[in-house]
Design the sequence.
């Protein structure tokens, strides 16, 4: 096992560091003439172009990737995208019609609820597209078409690199969809694809110095409760950050849409309660900052995740972690990696069994 870890203390850390390569392996085969192209995956353009509505369904981390996918697809293609937890989708008689596209996301391709959701979507006459990591898995075999992510084998129960490459496929699909729906032009498509092509390198540079994240982890390691806040895409990323941290550190973590704080969660913010605040998405920055000030005024210990160059005064945040220089389009990849590292180093600080957290399984093949 030590040999398999390649010098890393845990598989989770190894897998975090494998992300730049996994991104490259997943993105490169889907770029032709500078634009996204899924012909080698046998995804017909008509499937995307004719989709009246899109539904994304998955479990856990894969569902969180779907939420980020929703935000980018709706923005670039102006198509409505619903995201559902597979165990909810399968039992609520979802409004899925013929002509809709259902995107199923799964690392293992074997999750029982996700497989059932796929079968239901097919029964309702929808077209199905699976984003799967494990070749030949049940979901990959049963879906109308499959886009394989090339994360390689993921061993740590807490998913990192599989999520990262799911994000990359969803971004590529969003650009293709935007082009096919006539919502973006070719020049914009090429610009976005070239940004995606470069994100692995930016991530690699970021991973070469994680000292600020490690320092932030030391400040939150003793906390019984931690809150994550953000708006829009940052909220969706917060949900993944909270899941990652709770599953391996056993600290109670909750993600909250920053604008919802005053409708409940604010009552839980007292002296020293850590709040991980994502204020990355440019158009929502000012709004989130005002929410950060609200929690700070109640004594929260604020760790702010910010775009490069953004400076907050001491009254606003206790610690700031900055993304490297990047475009708005690729910010989620870098934010996600910061949150993975924060979870990892917090759990490490507690001396826990990071790769095999209690009560959890890598693949949930029973309901
Ligand atoms: C389990 C794993 C998670 C994963 C989820 C969905 O809960 O521990 O990491 O996100 O299942 O798995 P899938 O293989 O369908 O992506």
Sequence:
């Amino acid at each position: 096992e030590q040999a398999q870890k390649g010098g890393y203390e845990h598989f989770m850390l190894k897998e975090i560091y494998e992300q730049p390569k996994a991104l490259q392996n997943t993105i490169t085969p889907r770029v032709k003439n500078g634009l996204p192209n899924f012909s080698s995956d046998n995804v017909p353009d008509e499937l995307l172009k004719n989709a009246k509505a899109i539904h994304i369904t998955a479990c856990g981390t894969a569902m969180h990737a779907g939420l980020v996918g929703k935000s980018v697809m709706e923005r670039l293609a102006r198509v409505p995208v619903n995201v559902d937890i597979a165990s909810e989708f399968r039992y609520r008689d979802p409004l899925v019609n013929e002509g809709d596209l259902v995107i199923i996301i799964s690392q293992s391709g074997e999750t029982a609820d996700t497989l059932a959701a796929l079968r239901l979507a097919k029964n309702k006459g929808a077209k199905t597209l699976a984003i799967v990591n494990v070749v030949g898995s049940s979901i990959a075999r049963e879906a109308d078409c499959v886009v394989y992510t090339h994360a390689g084998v993921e061993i740590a129960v807490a998913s990192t690199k599989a999520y990262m490459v799911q994000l990359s496929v969803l971004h590529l699909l969003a650009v293709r969809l935007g082009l096919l729906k006539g919502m973006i032009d070719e020049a914009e498509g090429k610009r976005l694809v070239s940004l995606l092509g470069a994100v692995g390198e930016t991530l690699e540079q970021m991973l070469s110095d994680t000292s600020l994240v490690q320092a932030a982890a030391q400040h939150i390691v003793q906390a019984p409760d931690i809150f994550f806040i953000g708006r829009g895409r940052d909220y969706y990323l917060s949900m993944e950050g909270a899941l990652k941290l709770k599953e391996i550190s056993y600290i109670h973590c909750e993600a909250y849409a920053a604008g919802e704080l005053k409708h409940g969660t604010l009552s839980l913010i007292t002296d020293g309660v850590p709040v991980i605040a994502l204020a990355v998405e440019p158009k929502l920055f000012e709004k989130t900052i005002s929410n950060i000030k609200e929690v700070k005024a109640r004594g929260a210990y604020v760790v702010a995740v910010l775009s490069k160059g953004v400076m907050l005064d001491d009254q606003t945040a206790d610690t700031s972690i900055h993304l490297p220089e990047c475009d708005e389009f690729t910010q989620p990849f870098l934010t996600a990696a910061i949150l993975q590292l924060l979870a990892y180093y917090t759990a490490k600080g507690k001396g826990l069994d990071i790769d095999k957290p209690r009560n959890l399984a890598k693949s949930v093949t029973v309901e």
User: Anything to note?
Assistant: The CA atoms of residues 3 and 276 lie 35 Å apart. The two ends are 30 Å apart (CA to CA).
